[in-house]
Amino acid sequence: MASGKKAAGVRDQYEAYPYPPRDPADEATRLITGSPSDIVEIEHYVCGRKLTEDRLYRVLVAGGGTGDATIMLASQLAARGIAAEIIYLDLSSASLDIARARAAARRLENITFIQASLYELPERDLGKFDYIDCCGVLHHLPDPVAGLQILAAALQPEGGIGLMVYGRLGRTGVYEAQDLLRLMVGDLPDPERVETAHALLEDLPPTNWLLRNSNIGDHRNAGDAGIYDLLLHRQDRAYSVPDIFSLAADAGLRITGFVEPARYDPCNYLQDAALRKKVTALLWPEQCAAAELVCGNLKVHICYLVPAGTTRETPLTPESPIAVPMLKNVSGEALAGRLRGAPALSLDFDGTKIRLTLPKMAVEITAQIDGERSVAEIRKRLGKGGHRLSKSAFSRQFNDLYKALNGMNAMFLR
Ligand SMILES: C[S@@+](CC[C@H](N)C(=O)[O-])C[C@H]1O[C@@H](n2cnc3c(N)ncnc32)[C@H](O)[C@@H]1O
Question: Which of 67, 103, 146, 258 has a CB 3.0–4.6 Å from the CB of 108, allowing a cystine?
Fold first, then answer.
């Protein structure tokens, strides 16, 4: 299909089937949160410091869709009293209308809604941004590298990007089903394309790879918009871990972390000591690539990117005494209560069971985390409370706790 026709098809798709489907009335009962772009993740992976109210924080949501990241970020920044200017950009007026109605339902007033392509950013003169969210968009662009380069050029030197792109291996079955449908639907109008996809899904044998991939669910639980986005998209590519490192480098960016980190550590999936030793010897990008190949179920990749030349240390390391640990949506006391008596955290990552070992003092250390105390202060308080630990013994305990809790996306440092 010629590229102009393809681009028009993508625009028409999101006008007819805004994705993900959202009802502004639901804002009265719940706030959708997630990755990328949760404010504590931005502090950890992008700026390495607490976002404060001392200056206007500028955010671009590039391909904002029906508004999830826009609404989450605007709400979180407002709850912290941080003055912000948020620019929502999307090709689709239908998606924009839903996002705008959601913002109105929450009385969020600091959002500017613009219907445009992110390729138009250079001419639009919207200024530079502290943070850019680009979730589920780049893999639908005709030239993702050019798209990411444009976003990188719109960053403040201290800024960063939260990115989500599809994972190739974890989407096994999706591209095969897309190929199959392409043979059947050709240039049919949208309603017939969707009808054909419904019929096909009912008729597939159990050996079909889409049916065998139980982690893929949009065709089952996101209505016609989900079916279209998953199976009938005209422009859809997916990435392996090495592809993402190349994409970042081509845009002059550096990856500061993947979410959840534990998914990208091959040791979490392997028991054999010799194999674990081999993967531990690899460089971090290779370890992430190995993890993807071992587990096989990373259907998306969520990561944070900063300009490659930046010297700021993000994320901070747990060895840094000035680092302030933060938890997501839970107090230190409450989490400590949940960890009591548990030697390890048992997690189910989309069918893969992993176990993250907790250090002996997990409960005591976690109870001291209040989002303000530094690692050094926590050690001092434990000392005063009668826990005599040398600096290095405490550091080992804290590192192990951080590895487990950060691994599951629950603890961050700023
Ligand atoms: C799969 S949706 C993701 C929406 C949102 N980011 C989210 O995560 O919920 C992809 C969105 O990208 C938008 N889009 C596609 N190409 C675009 C472009 N060149 N510029 C701006 N938006 C684009 C579509 O209109 C659609 O709303």
Answer: 103
